[in-house]
Structure formats: C-alpha cells, structure tokens
Amino acid sequence: MTATHTPATGSRRDRLTRRWLATAGVLAAAVYLVPVYWMVVTSLKAGDAVFRVPPDLVPLPPTVESYTRAVFSDPDIARGLANSAVIAVGTTVLTLLIALPAAYGLAKFKVRGIGAVMMLMLIVQMVPSVNLALPMFVLFSGAGLVDSYAGLIIANCALAVPLAVTILRPYFLSVPEEVVEAAKMDGCSELASFVRIALPVSVPGIVTVAVVSFLGAWGEFVFGLSLATSEGIQPVTIVLAEITNEFGVRWNDLMAVSAVVALPVIAAFVFLQRYIVAGLTDGATKA
Amino acid sequence: MAVAVPPRADAPPRPVPTGRGRGRARRLLAPLLFTAPAVLFVGATVVYPLLYSVLQSFFDIGLREVVQGGAQWVGLDNYADQFARPRFWDSFGVSVVYTVASVALTFAIGLGLALLLRRPFRGRDVLRALILVAWVLPTVVSANVWRWLLDGSYGLLNAMLRALGLIDGDLFWLGRPGAAVAAVVFATAWSFAPFAMILLAAGLEGIPKRLYEAARIDGASPWRQFRHITLPQLRPVSLAALLLVFIYTFKNFDTIFLMTAGGPGGATATLPVYAYNEAFEFSRFDTASVATTVLMIVPIALSLFYFRALRKERDA
Predict the structure, then answer these.
(1) CA distance B226 to B212
(2) How many CB pairs below 8 A link A and B?
(3) In this predicted complex, what is the ipTM?
(4) What angle do helix axes B86-116 and B271-280 make, rounded to 10 degrees?
(5) Is the Cβ–Cβ distance between A203 and B2 less than 8 Å?
(6) Out of B6, B142, B303, whose CB is closest to A122?
(7) Nearest one of B249, B114, B270 to B186, comparing CA atoms
(8) pLDDT per residue over B125-172, tens digit each?
(9) What residues of chain B lie within 8 A of the CB of A278, using their CB?
(10) Interhelix angle A114-124/A149-173, nearest 10 degrees
(11) What is the pTM of this model?
(12) For chain A, how far is it from start to end, CA to CA, in angstroms?
C-alpha cells in the first residue's frame, strides 16, 4: 500500500499523528489489562513471593504449584467446574431450542402483536437478577426445583432466551423472502423451510447466541447463590466465592482458581471474538 | 453473504390451498407454534415471578410461610415499614450515588478508549477485543482480582501509590466507607466501560467524514472539531449508552456483594444488596419484595422510555 491509495492521509504530519494515536491506543489497552495480568502473575508466584514489598512485577521463577495445590487437587473446584459446565451447556441448548423458532416466527410472519412481543423480550432483559432470584426461590421451593440442575438451567434461560431472540431476529429478517417462498412453492412446509433454509444461512447468529448464552451461564452468580443451596450442585462461581474467605491471604491460590474460572471466557474470546462482539451489543441496541 | 438455495425456476408452482376459514386458521397456526414456546417461557419464568414478587410485598412472609404457606394479607404495611426505615433510604441513596458515579466514569473511559482506537491501525481490532475481556470476565473473578489489587498491605495499587509518595504505610480501601464506594465504582466502570466503548465506537464510525473535511478546510482545530462535530453527532448513541449503562449499573449486584458485601457498615449497600440480605439473611421475603419492587421500577421505566425513543427515531 502506498500513500497514493489514500491521498487524504498521506501527509507527514498526519502519519505522525497516526503513529502517536496507535501508540497511545496500545498503552491504554495495556493499562486496561493490568488486572488480568496481575491475576496471572500472582497465580504463578510461590507463597512467600506474594508478600514481597514492593511486589515483583514478574514471577521469577514462575511456579505452577498454586494450580496443582488449589485447583487440581481440590475436589470442590473440580465439582464446581463440572456443575458449571452442565448448567452452561443445558442453558445453551434450551435457549437455542426455545429462541430459534421464536426469532424465526417473529421475523418471518406478518401478524399483529409482534411489536408487543419484541418489546416484552427487550424489557425483561432490564429486570435485575435479584428481582427474579427472590420469587424464584419461593416458587422453586414449592416445585422442588431448588438445588437442582433443572432449576438453575431454567433460571439462566429466563435471561438468556429474551437476549437470544433479540440477537437472532435480525439474522432471520435478512433471509430473503423469495427464497423462503420458493421453497414453499416446492412443497416445503413452514418447519422444513425454517430448518433447511433459514437455519443454515443464520449460522453466525446461532454461534453468537450459543457463545453468549454459554458465557452468561458460566459467569452467572445470583441464581447460583440463591437457588443452589447444597454443595453438590453449586456452580464454580459460588465455589470460588465461598473459598475466598477460606483462602484468606493465599492470594496466589485464589488467583489460580480465578484464572481457571476465567479460562473458558478468555478462550472463547480468542477464538470467537467477532461473534461475541456482535452479540454483546446487538441485543440491547437493535430493537 | 451468499444465499444458500437459489429459487428453482423449473419447478412448477403448486396450487396454494385457498379455503377461506382453513387458510386463515393455518396462517395463524404457524406463527403461534413458532413463537408460543418462547412467549410462554418468558411469561412463566420472568413475568409471573415478577408479579408474584409484587404480590408478596402485600403479605407477611417469612421463612415459615415460604415452607408451609398461609401468608397473611397485610396491605401496605410492608411499604410503610420500609419507607419509615432509615436503612432503606440509606441504601436507596447509596444506589443513586454509586450508579451516577459509575455511569459517569464508565462513559468517560468508554469514550476515551473509543476515540483512542478510532483511527484504524494494525492490531486495533485485537486491542478492542482484549479490552472487551474486562466486560465478559465472570464478576467473581474480577471482584477477587480487585480485592487483591486493593489489598491494604500487599496490593499493587498501594505499592504504586507508595512509590509515587502519595501514601505511606497501609491503606485499607475496602475498610473505609468513602474509599470503599470509590473502589466499587472503579471496579464497576472497569467492567462496563468496554461495553460503552463498543457502542460509542460504532457511533463514531457513523459520523460522515465530509463534516471533518469541511471543518479542516475552515481551519478548525482538533478540539473545535471534537466539540462541534464529534460530540453533537454522537448525541443519540451517547444517550443510548448512558441509559443502558445506567440500567445495568443500577441493577448490578455481583460486584458489590463480592467486593464488600455492602460494607463497611452499609456504606456500599445498594438496593439489590439490601434486598438480597433482607430475603436471605433475615428471611424477610415480604420487605425484600418491597425493595425489589422499588428496584424494578427505575430500570423498567427508563427502558420503556428508551425503546420508545428508539422506535420513534427509526419510524421517523
């Protein structure tokens, strides 16, 4: 690329400004991520190195003993991770099952009441989790759903389904009407044209919703706190919050567990970043 | 994006069934079958519990009534009880201070980041994505990291402040009322600013380039361009970002519960924390419902206003 490609940006001064802005951008991002860096660094320090004043900015020599001690040899953490995986996968599957047809229906059929349904889907996303957790605890107590995977999955889906519908609807809106009509002419039923035509072209939207639902349930805290009263069912977020007091000042161990809890989120981000960025902002802004 | 299946021109069109009554019923049946599960689900898991909770606020409900039933109708007694309590109004005040301060800081940081990462350069999108990690990090994780960063004796923040000569000795941020509020505000802004950044960055993209070109020809300084083009052009997106961040912050529970649990001495006990403690610490599900009902009115009123405005703008 040469300067002739974009003549407006060719001047020396402009290039210099650009370089300054880029440097400032990199610095800002670096400062912004100091907490994440500090979590990883601390998790790689040996016990006494944590209490050095002033602190070492790099763990020398790095050690994984916090991971082996606090994460891999602790059955509570392993169970918490397994519980979180079950809850997050369950939430993702149930959310897709409910939200996919609904988003398609709200995009493709021209009937009255669609505006009202979309408004409902948007507004329920603004409801504080605490507002749901309290009555859910009372209602679930009566239904035997407290302290069960089913109860936690349902609670997570209460927030995930409306978000999923708002993210998915624009994808189905952009499926050309003629294609769906042509398929129906060919004898496709409403269901078949949904499954064979609308779903395949909306894969990016489906991936976005799957990732957002999974991560939402993975990091969820309020429902786990109020609806999972016994240890056997608690998601890892609750296990982590509870061992916090127990660990006291073993910050390296606490940071190791935190890093493991954060890992799926960071991994998902690295590999599926473009899907997530769209999903995180679309739900709220594309009414 | 490519269209998956091209319409087949060679296939003869099938006759569409035209029986009036049946056709109409069938036309309505399909939309109903597709959307009913989601509507019923949201009705059962969100709308019904919310109404139930509002109803609870008119009954006398402790743990015994939750287990055995038989709650007594007490009318507005719970509201009278709560509204007469200084602690309720204290937490309402804490909520307002916490929300306003967090929203202001979130917006300022988000706008700063959006402006810094506005001009394209190699690696810019990666930086944006990295910053967004702060937003999707589970709150348990970020709250623990903040507690460690803010630790009075060995925390990184105090080490830096000591190096700069600003403090000497230990400072326990989460143990002092004022400092604890500042700490939770800062932690909240750190988590929410990337969200504001993404919304504002999209808004910046939408500003027509020719406005800046014209201003440059007129000799306007970068500051004047920012003041007279960027800020006014960004107004609609800014309003949306402010409103959404306000709602998210006002209802935020995790950050505070995990960092301070509302302490010290209730200094950071926002309404959600207050409501949670009423219900699960003191088993007062009735007065907790009063708090959550008040808590719910603000975001719902604001979001109704927001989505109405959004529609009006789009329809215009």
Answers:
(1) 9
(2) 312
(3) 0.86
(4) 130
(5) no
(6) B303
(7) B249
(8) 888 888 988 988 999 999 999 999 998 888 899 888 988 988 888 888
(9) none
(10) 130
(11) 0.85
(12) 40
